[in-house]
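input
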Amino acid sequence: MQTFDDLYYREPYAKEFVAYPPSCEPHDGGYAIELSQTAFYPTGGGQPGDRGTLTLGEGEDAVVAHVAEAVPGKAEDGSEEGVVHLSDVALPVGSEVHGALDWTWRRDNMEAHTGEHIVSGIVHKLFGYDNIGFHMGEKSIEVDFDGVLTAEDALDVERRANAAVRTDVTVRALLPTPDELEAMDYRSKKDHEGQIRIVEIEGVDTCACCGTHLSSSGQVGLIKIVRMSTKKKKTRLELLCGRRALELCEER
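output
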């Protein structure tokens, strides 16, 4: 059962950390490394896994393992357990290593995920549509809704989303008890066993989510809807958020 006490949840702004690998096994031409603790978020919930480095030693003798992706580990029963770091270099079991995130990548994903919640929350409040699909790519985010939006609707959603960004409200991750959860009105209600994590953007959205988020809406910076398509009474919005949205404005 996930308890959400991992370092990437407790300290989502941690860029570096120290840990010890209890295991390091060959995997697809590289290595799968587990750590005693990690700030690397593993791929899941529509959000890509973190990238970065694990370094053993210092100076010219340092061994640097490049982590291409962090993914969920698997227990013997097939359930998810811990985090596996897919690396190009093996690290000795029990050694002290220094982990460093590719912070641009993580920050981009935090901006994107919080921005997506703002947009999805506004669409749900205005039209009652649910988010039925969500994918974060290398740059943009695709969000599918179970209803039709017009171009005017999308523009209104974008304006309201950026107003929520400018208001700079608090973003909090909550771990409600079953009774508290029962009394909450939130998006993405699905059958889950164990603890449910709720991400609340004050006055904008409340949603079950296992991803990493910013601590306030203002840190998103900017939200742009760059493409919209409709098919079979469903709508897909493609979004750019934060730094990626600002880069688009600079290009234009």
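quick obs: The chain has two domains: 7-101, 106-251.
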